[in-house]
Structure formats: structure tokens, C-alpha cells
Amino acid sequence: MNCEECGKRPATLHLTKIVNGEKTEYHICEQCAKEADVFGGFSNFSINNLLSGLLNFDPMLKKEGAGAKDSQANQKPFRCETCGLTYAQFSKSGKFGCSDCYKFLGDRLDPLLRRIHGNIQHLGKVPERTGGQLKIRKELDQLKEALRKYVVSEEFEKAAEIRDRIRALEQRIAQS
Amino acid sequence: MSQQSFTQNPWSYWMKGDGPDSDIVVSTRLRIARNLSQLPFPLLATDSQAEEVVRKVSAAAKDEAMKNLADFELITMEQISPLEKRVLVEKHLVSPNLAEESRKGAVLLNREESISIMINEEDHIRIQVLLPGFQLNEAWETGSKLDDLFEKHLNYAFDEKRGYLTSCPTNVGTGIRASVMLHLPALVITQQINRILQAINQVGLVVRGLYGEGSEALGNLFQLSNQVTLGLAESDILANLYSVARQIIEQERVARRYLHEHSRTALEDRIYRSYGILLYARNVESKEAAQRLSDVRLGIDLGIIKGIPSNIINELLVMTQPGFLQHHAGQKLTPEQRDERRARLIRERLSTVTN
């Protein structure tokens, strides 16, 4: 086969482009390829392009686009309330705008994270200072729930004990 | 110490050429991605928000305990020339992304150049520790200590479920990327490398070339790093990487012994030819330089070439990169001029150590 561009030299580069399901084939020689810079568009290809590829196939995105039939949570297209990043922007760059994007996306991130990491839940290091606070807050929530139960069941001695523990923890947060 | 010493001097701590398993592992790198809560990620940050990040991080670096660990100098990408940026990239002190695409990008470097804290790269903070040889745990210990010291002064974006929040979901969780630079000439010569690379991809690790994402494996140098950052503790991530790297190191040693025993003449011929070319050639392209230097490195490691310290090879590898050559020349050079200068530089450097 001869080069489609110059028709003289044999075609040594065979490129198949598939854009939106439309297939285009090129058969050209190396020299014409260099001149036409057919690979130019690929030079900046990075992990982020791959990611946005993953996202575009994601069922959660399709749900958002189609809307109507799905539950309320899925109907609303994602937009981070803190930084204003939209799904369209995220799927284009593969990057989030701020740390709150994770919060607003919530569980909808699970399929993507599972695909990248095979996991959705962090294990490992926790920041010493702020992480300690997180732990205390979690404990506080549990204690408050226990307090409510003891009050309802009128076990006031136990309730008082829990109340003191809550006060101590609240003081620790205030101090740090 | 001045910013000039970082760009003029071709020498960085990771190039020392020693450290454990340094016959195969050139260097170990550990990178920790962190972000500040309350501020948008670099992608969306305004210039003044990005400047705020630089201020906050460099102020945190002045912590007394931090000073005991490293005395940092701040270099902003705006204050240095494109060639100087390129030199920092070629020395692996900053990423190409920070040098070319960041807004208000900056880096904190210690004198030894074993630690670089990139600011406003893809994430607000990227702590990088770069050591010679195979030292994954040492790199993590230093990196983690720096991380703790920064956290004393900065509020990190952290979520109980997702861990450390990062701009790109590929880094979320622990935010760590550990990598080892492996010199694997014998696995390439014996054509076992492709089989090994395929296997690596199946165990959650990635292999890249000398200059990271998208770069070619020049000079038989392969960068092996972890892919997964979420759902595994740091110690597990490091242990996985360690055990795979350890296996590759052993395979490379076996292949080297095999070549040494079974095709000694062919191996010596290849090594001495490359050595000869580097000692006498007048034009050397960068790709050829990388390949020839790899041969000579193998010769040194196998004891075939004597009297050349192996750190010279690391130094030459960096000095012969386009950015460094041009910065050294003090001007832009055409590719032909670069090839000529590269050949001269290698010749001079090698002959000073052999005589």
C-alpha cells in the first residue's frame, strides 16, 4: 500500500482513530506523518485523560444525564457547593476543585475509586493533630447517643457518668 | 547557599552512587501529596490563594524541629529562567508539571537536595524525599516526619473515609507514591524485560522511564512505583513495592551472572566498545549517551571496568541532558551543538578519572 498523502512512498504508519464511535483510518509514510504531525494530538496524553475516559463510561454520569427515572439524589447533576466545580469540568480534567468536592460527591465516587484502587476506604496514616479531633468527635457522637438512651430509660446514674465524659471530651476539643 | 548552586552544580545527594543494592537500584524516591483544607486545589485557586499557600507552607518550614531535619531555601518558579527550571527537572528536584504548568509554583529545597517540597503542583504540597540506592523505609521515615511537622502548623484536607484528599483521585488516601529507579541492562539484553514488565502491571505497580509519566526507558533505567494509594496502609504499599523490587533485583543479578559466565567475550566487547566511544567520540546524541553510559555502568558494576566511581555515571546522565548542557553553556544550543558538547563533556569527565 502506498502512502495516502504523497502516493509515492510505501505507507508504514497505520493509524486508527475512533471518535464517538466513528472510525477513521490513515495509512501514510513516516515523512508525511512528521509533516502532518498526526501524532501531535497525542503528545500530551496523560493519566487525567484516561481518568476522564473512565468517568464518561461511568453509569452514575449517564444517570445524571438521563435523569427522570432515577431517584432524587441521582437526578441532580453534581456541582460542588464550595468551589462550583461541575461534573463536566471534572470529567474533562480528571481533577477536583477543592477538598469539599469529595464530600458533595459522596458515595457516587465509589465506582471510580474502586476502579482505580480496588478500594473505597482509607487505611493508614491519620493526621496527628486534626485526626485526633476527628476521633474525639466520633466518640462524642456515640456518647451523646448513649446519653439519650439512658435518659429515655431513666438510668440517671449512668447518664450522669456519660455526661461527665462528654464534658471532658468537649473541653479537650476546645483546648486543642 | 543560593539558588544558583541548585542549578549550576550537577550533583545531587541521590547521585552519590552508594546505598544498599546500588549496583542495581540507582535511587529511591518517596512523594507524599497533601492539601490544605479551606483553600481550593491549585486547579481552581486564584493567584492570591496560591500565594497564600506558598506563604503558609514556607512559614511552616521554619519550624524549629524542621530546621533540625533540613534547612530549606524557597525557590519560586517565577524567579528562575526556563533553562534553570529544566535543570531542576533533570535533577529530579521538581516535576515537569511544577516547572511548566503550575501557577505560583514554588519549591523548598534542602542543601543536600535530598528533600524537595513542591508547592502548588497538582496538589498544594508534595513532599519528596530522594535517596541513593534502595532505601524505601528510610525515605518514608523522613517523609512522614516532615509530614508530621507540617501538620503541626497546617490544617490538612483529610476525610475519615477517603483519607488525605488530593486533587486527582489517583492519589487519594495515603497520598504516597514510592518509586525505585532500577538499572536493568542484563534483563534487557537477555530479553526477559517485557515478560517482567507485564507481570508488574498485574500486581498494582507501574513502570515508567527515567523522567516519569510518559517518558521512555532510556539507558535501561526503569522506574518502578505503586499505583494504589487508597485502602492500603503505607507500610503495606511499601512492603509490596519492596518485595517486587527485590525479586527484580535478584533476577537482574542472575541474568548478569549468566551473561558474565556464558557470553563473557560478547559482554566485554559491548562494554568496552561503549567505553571507547564515550572516550573518543566527537558527537553523541542523548539517546546514545544514555545507552553507552548504561553499558559502562554495567562494566563498572561487574568489575570489568576498574577505577571509575559509579557516581560519575549518575552525574553524566544528568549533565548530558539538554537543559543542563545549555544552562552550562549559558545559551540555547541547536541539537547538533548539543551533541558536540555532550561528547566533549563525557570525554573530559571520563579522562579525568581514568588518568
Automatic annotation (TrEMBL), chain A:
The keyword Transferase applies. Residues 137-172 form the UVR domain. PANTHER family: PROTEIN-ARGININE KINASE ACTIVATOR PROTEIN. Keywords: Kinase, Transferase. Pfam families: UVR. It comes from Brevibacillus fulvus. This is Protein arginine kinase activator. GO terms for biological process: stress response to cadmium ion; stress response to copper ion. InterPro entries: UVR_dom, UVR_dom_sf, YacH. One of its GO terms (molecular function) is cobalt ion binding. SUPFAM superfamilies: C-terminal UvrC-binding domain of UvrB.
TrEMBL record, chain B:
Catalyzes the specific phosphorylation of arginine residues in proteins. A motif (RDXXRA motif of the pArg binding pocket involved in allosteric regulation) lies at residues 338-343. It comes from Brevibacillus fulvus. Its EC number is 2.7.14.1. GO terms for biological process: phosphocreatine biosynthetic process. GO terms for molecular function: ATP binding; creatine kinase activity; protein arginine kinase activity. This is Protein-arginine kinase. Belongs to the ATP:guanido phosphotransferase family. ATP binds at residues 27-31, 92, 126, 177-181, 208-213. PROSITE patterns: PHOSPHAGEN_KINASE, PHOSPHAGEN_KINASE_C. NCBIfam families: PRK01059.1-4, PRK01059.1-5. Pfam families: ATP-gua_Ptrans. SUPFAM superfamilies: Glutamine synthetase/guanido kinase (SSF55931). Residues 24-255 form the Phosphagen kinase C-terminal domain. Keywords: Allosteric enzyme, ATP-binding, Kinase, Nucleotide-binding, Transferase. The gene is mcsB. It comes from the Bacteria. One of its GO terms (cellular component) is extracellular space. InterPro entries: Arg_Kinase, ATP-guanido_PTrfase, ATP-guanido_PTrfase_AS, ATP-guanido_PTrfase_cat, Gln_synth/guanido_kin_cat_dom. The lineage of its organism: Bacteria, Bacillati, Bacillota, Bacilli, Bacillales. Appears to be allosterically activated by the binding of pArg-containing polypeptides to the pArg-binding pocket localized in the C-terminal domain of McsB.
